[in-house]
Amino acid sequence: MDVNQLMATAKALMTEGKGLLAMDESNPTCNKRFAALGIAQTPEARRAYRDLIVTTPGLGDFISGAILFDETLRQQTNAGISFVDALKKAGIIPGIKVDTGARDMAGFPGEKVTEGLDGLRPRLAEYAAMGARFAKWRAVITVGDGIPTWSCIEANAHALARYAALCQEAGLVPIVEPEVLMDGSHTLEQCLAATEKSQHALFHQLYQMRVDLRGVILKPNMVLPGKACPRQDPVDRVADVTVTCLLANVPAILPGVAFLSGGQSAELASQRLQAMNLRFQGRMPWALTFSYSRAIQQPALELWKGQPANIPAAQRALHQRAACNSAARRGVYNAAMEKHPGQS
Ligand code: 13P
Question: Could you identify the atom of ligand 1 that is nearest to the CA of residue 177?
Fold first, then answer.
């Protein structure tokens, strides 16, 4: 393990004013989003969509790294070059999702555990040889009646830490993603309790597995009420509770934190990131940025609809969301930016 190389990658991913773009939807997830908009659910449609994203002019001004799915890593752009090379050309570091999905946890109704450790070492070696510089593994924590259990939190934290150790061995920076879901009617306080436990357990396991935190990035959920909760807390409260939770549970030596969006609207995801960076300016030991999928992509996907003629409009929308989140990462986002597509 070359810790200097890991630290250099992590630092580059956390470049001032930039964040990550998650474009690593598994085929079933991508197909579900395509189906909702009447887009063909084929390998070629998925390739064309990822081509649209990667060739968006100026994307590298706001995006430091992009997370790919295995299928995309093996495909080529319209110009006949690999997606890895296209990203590098755009100044974006290529990464890869390596978990194989969250499955029902035996004995724990309503809870899931993420799979993918079997055979991970040779898969990571292959991805590194193909040009990936970092990886992602997502654990899913559900809030509900009597859940999450410690058993679920610990099983997921253990898997995340074993994945992270293997990544570092292969020279890849692990992004560790313990996601407390927004599904349900739970309160912000219930989300906070689950998020604290998940982060605390995760860093304990990373320590146990001898993972070097200087080469790790945390991808957490924001602390939010469930989508169906009647009380939807204001932006500033979400910002304060989320950052306070991180300060209490995330070691200062970690280079960065990059949030998932988790089903928030695109504008709320920008507003909340902005509030955190503004209100805690100079008081956070790590960079605080985004690693959004839906909150960056959704407006573009809705404009594209699978039609080549819509590509320029979709690319403008993608650029706009990347610019807004870049501004939020710097603490200079404001509502007026939503009215002027392309402005940073
Ligand atoms: P969302 O931003 O849509 O939550 O996706 C982020 C991600 O990478 C989920 O694993």
Answer: 10
pLDDT class of 80 with cuts at 50, 70, 90: very high
**For residue 25, how far is its CA from the centre of ligand 1 (angstroms)?**
8
DSSP string, 196-230: HHHHHHHHHHHHHTT--GGG-EE-PPP----TT-S
Give me ligand 1 centre to Cα 147, in Å. Answer: 22
The minimum-distance atom of ligand 1 relative to the CA of 294 is 3
Residue 59: Cβ within 10 Å count: 22
Active site residues: 177, 219
What's the rounded Cα separation, in Å, for the pair 209 and 212? 9
pLDDT tens per residue, range 32-78: 999 999 999 999 999 999 999 999 999 999 999 999 999 999 999 99
Beta strand 63-68 with 217-218 is unpaired
Q: Ligand 1 pocket test: which of 53, 261, 273, 290 has the largest number of ligand atoms within 8 Å of its C-beta?
A: 261
Q: What is the mean pLDDT of residues 272-283?
A: 98
Whether residue 143 contacts residue 181, with contact meaning beta carbons closer than 8 Å, is answered with yes
Task: Give the pTM.
Answer: 0.97
Is the model's pLDDT at 343 over the cut of 50? no
Could you give all domains of the chain from N- to C-terminal order, each with its CATH number? 3-338 (3.20.20.70)
23, 96, 289, 292, best to mutate for ligand 1 pocket (most atoms within 8 Å of CB): 292
